[in-house]
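Q: Got a minute? One more chain.
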Amino acid sequence: MLNARFVGRKRINEEQVPARFPGGTLARIDAVLDEKEKRAEFIRTAIEREIERRERAQERKNNS
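A: Always. Here it is, folded:
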């Protein structure tokens, strides 16, 4: 018998966090999504880019 924990594809997004956005934010996101692009992927990408931007800024600050 197969163990249900190992059936299917590997999870790539392990962490979850509920987030609240100001009114209208999700509609604005939806308005700029590319065809077949998912809202969750848009949000993940935006967050990852912001983290990378801040990490670079922090590195520059620490190297000054």
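A: Residues 38-64 form one domain.
Q: Perfect, thanks.
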